[in-house]
Specification:
Elements (H helix, E strand, L loop, with lengths): L2 H14 E9 L5 E6 L1 H4 L3 H17 L6 E5 L4 H11 L2 E5 L12 E2 L9 H24 L4 H24 L2
Parallel strand pairs: 3-4
Antiparallel strand pairs: 1-2, 4-5
């Protein structure tokens, strides 16, 4: 592990890892006495920069080129903004659904980089569903990995709900 990635791991351990006396409910619905609060771990600008530099480095090491970086709003905003800064790229956000006011966009900001037709935007739900299925397949094929065991029960149920919603809108 290189120095930058080790620094991120140290940040998460020292600033984000929390242990509670009593179990707390996680977003997965499961309970745990241990919780990693990434927002807390990376709340300082220099710490977020370190994490974003590490992510940009990992992408470059993998040979991936990109013009813009983004993700689901709130969960990924700070990373999209940070990576855009350290890599000098554009950033965008994806909402769970259009706001219903203002520009009423599902994808905000990407059109500054490249056109996004209505047909392309309509396919985003397909790509999200495909990504979800790939991760579900990974979980199923890595039953001996702790994180797969933790994710499996609730991720499968959540994937079924998303698939039902997806299929009902694509018939």
């Amino acid at each position: 592990m290189n120095e930058l990635r080790a620094a991120v791991l140290d940040l998460v351990r020292s600033k984000g890892l929390r242990h509670f006396d009593e179990p707390v409910q996680l977003s997965s619905g499961e309970y745990s006495q241990d919780f990693i609060d990434a927002k807390r771990a990376l709340a300082q600008g220099r710490d977020l920069r370190t994490a974003c530099e590490a992510m940009a480095e990992m992408v470059a090491d993998a040979g991936v080129e990109f013009d813009a970086v983004g993700g689901l709003t709130l969960g990924a905003d700070q990373f999209a903004h940070g990576i855009a800064l350290v890599a000098d790229k554009a950033w965008f956000v994806i909402r769970k659904q259009p706001k219903g006011r203002g520009t009423d966009q599902w994808v905000e900001g990407y059109r500054r980089v490249a056109p996004l037709s209505a047909e392309d935007e309509a396919e985003l739900r397909t790509f999200v569903m495909f990504r979800r299925l790939l991760l579900l397949a990974w979980i199923g094929s890595h039953g001996d990995v702790d994180v797969a065991q933790e994710l499996a029960p609730t991720y499968a149920v959540g994937s079924c709900h998303l698939a039902e919603e997806y299929l009902s809108s694509h018939t």
